[in-house]
Automatic annotation (TrEMBL), chain A:
Sequence similarity: Belongs to the snRNP Sm proteins family.
Gene3D superfamilies (alphabetical): 2.30.30.100
Any one GO molecular function term: RNA binding
GO cellular component: catalytic step 2 spliceosome; Lsm1-7-Pat1 complex; P-body; precatalytic spliceosome; U4/U6 x U5 tri-snRNP complex; U6 snRNP
Residue span(s) of domain Sm: 2-76
SMART domains xrefs: Sm (SM00651)
Keyword S-adenosyl-L-methionine attached: no
Keywords for the protein's UniProt record, in alphabetical order: mRNA processing, mRNA splicing, Nucleus, Ribonucleoprotein, RNA-binding, Spliceosome
InterPro entries noted in UniProt: LSM_dom_sf, Sm, Sm_dom_euk/arc, U6_snRNA_Lsm2
GO BP annotations, alphabetical order: mRNA splicing, via spliceosome
Protein name in UniProt: Sm domain-containing protein
Pfam families hit by this protein: LSM (PF01423)
Domain of life: Eukaryota
Organism of derivation: Pelagomonas calceolata
TrEMBL record, chain B:
Subunit structure of this chain's protein: LSm subunits form a heteromer with a donut shape.
Name of this protein: U6 snRNA-associated Sm-like protein LSm1
Keywords: Cytoplasm, mRNA processing, Ribonucleoprotein, RNA-binding
Native organism: Pelagomonas calceolata
UniProt cross-references to Gene3D superfamilies, sorted A to Z: 2.30.30.100
Residues of the Sm domain: 7-89
Length: 93, 125
């Protein structure tokens, strides 16, 4: 649940998502669920020449299972808080 | 009970009754009106078509696409890569591939004059 909670704090921020098939998308994080499925608003495909069909889409739902990386705005992530939360969770477990 | 259950794939509710582009793990593109979904992101597409997008081999020629009609489809969630709401204005923009008859698109592919826009196959990568 840790990363789900972290992503929830990033709603409304600009993020970039790279998928396992090398497609990269940028957009505003609209919502996230417990599978880390991601919904982006006003999404843009990074390499439109390679994936021209994605020019047509505005908001995109990405299935969590196909995500390789998510690039986050560093200023909006409190790494220390995340570390503490991780420790607390592992002590509890 | 309802308070404890997390809203899985809840965000798809905004796409209900909208025309969506679904990209599958095997690289196919489906376009249809999303009528239903569940917590596994299984979706029902009405008037589904397979969108075949090809990039001509000749340099500087824009991509084209053709739609092959399929009908009513239930797409299993685990084969979905992404699902995007089709924006009519963006679909009509010059950056988007131009529409062609599906038979012409298939003929271009057969003749080796054009290549499918992406090899998305996640299983292979």
């Amino acid at each position: 649940m840790l990363f789900y909670s972290m992503f929830k704090t990033l709603v409304g921020k600009e993020i970039a998502v790279e998928l396992k098939n090398d497609v990269a998308l940028t957009g505003t994080l609209h919502s996230i669920d417990q599978y880390l499925n991601i919904k982006l608003l006003d999404a843009r495909v990074v390499d439109a020449a390679r994936h021209p069909q994605l020019v047509a889409v505005s908001s995109v739902f990405v299935r969590g299972s196909v995500v390789r990386y998510v690039q986050l705005p560093a200023a909006d992530v409190d790494a220390e808080l995340l570390q503490d939360a991780c420790r607390k969770a592992s002590v509890k477990a | 009970m309802a308070g404890l259950v997390l809203p899985a794939a809840a965000s798809l509710v905004d796409q209900l009754d909208k025309r969506v582009l679904v990209i599958l793990r095997d690289g196919r593109n489906l376009v249809g009106v999303m009528r239903s979904f569940d917590q596994f992101s299984n979706v029902v597409l009405e008037d589904a078509v397979e969108r075949r997008v090809v990039i001509p081999a000749k340099e500087g020629v824009n991509a084209v696409y053709g739609d092959a009609p399929l009908g009513l489809y239930v797409v299993r969630g685990d084969s979905i890569v992404l699902l995007g709401e089709v924006d009519d204005a963006r679909e009509a923009s010059p950056q988007h591939p131009a529409r062609m008859d599906i038979r012409d698109v298939l003929e271009l592919e057969r003749a080796g004059l054009a290549e499918r826009a992406v090899v998305w196959d996640i299983e292979e990568s």
